[in-house]
Amino acid sequence: MQELRQGIVLTEAVEMAAQPVSVLITGANRGLGLEMVRQMLEAPCPVRKLFACCRDPDGPRAEALQTLAKKNPNISVVRLDATDLCSIKLCAQQVGSLVGTGGLNLLINNAGIAPKGTVQETSPEDMQHCFNTNVMGPMNIIKEFLPHLRDAVKASGMPGMSINKAAVVSISSLLGSMEALHSYAFFPAASYRISKAGLNMLTVCAAEELKKDEILFCVLHPGWVRTDMGGEEADIDPPESVQGMLSVMASLTEKQNGAFLDYKGQSIPW
């Protein structure tokens, strides 16, 4: 019996050690981002430092997030506007002061916009705004948080790559796949598709450039989800999507560095 108890304690200790200590999620005030916050807090071994970022933490659209934060000391709600470099820099400084030399284990680029419209209907301003949010934002966020990701690699002492060491997971879409144009007539969203293809390429470039730093990069398709962005006719609810994505994230190794996967862990053609 004593050996069984020791085994259970050891297993729990290993599982706790395998959890990322610190996680940052952008666009955490609603939809998939808010559901990620919920599920990470409800996990058997909750994330110890969870940075939930959004554009207006004190606004009405962040009330649900603030309610969660009041109930859980592990959450820090931080302002981050993906289209504002000054905001990103300030957020990185704030997070850095809180994680210290332990660094940031997992950065989830979740914030994004999905305007509709064909190529002919999309104005230059619309395209620029979509690109700034969905591509430039994640690029600037990666660059500003890179020192904290490198600190996490140094602090981990673990071999290989994983979200428990240092990783950047960006939420992309099947619509960013050039081989998935069969759905264009149903949902054109030209600027969104183009920006997500750009995000995919950004991830591949970062994965190649920073593999020597042992920082893992991956893009995930959450499925067609019933959110404000996905609409009521979508296939699945946020809890199912997020549960799947978190499971996929937990399984990532250097073999999936630069991969394009769905919420079930299946590879998606570029």
Describe the protein's architecture and organization:
The chain contains seven helices and seven strands, in the order αβαβαβαβαβαβαβ. Strands 3-2-1-4-5-6-7 form a seven-stranded parallel β-sheet, sandwiched between helices. The chain is globular. The protein has a single domain, classed as NAD(P)-binding Rossmann-like Domain (Rossmann fold). β4, α5 and β5 form a beta-alpha-beta unit. With 270 residues, it is an alpha/beta fold. The chain starts with a helix and ends in an 8-residue tail after the last strand. This is C-factor. InterPro entries: Fungal_SecMetab_SDRs, NAD(P)-bd_dom_sf, SDR_fam. Belongs to the short-chain dehydrogenases/reductases (SDR) family.
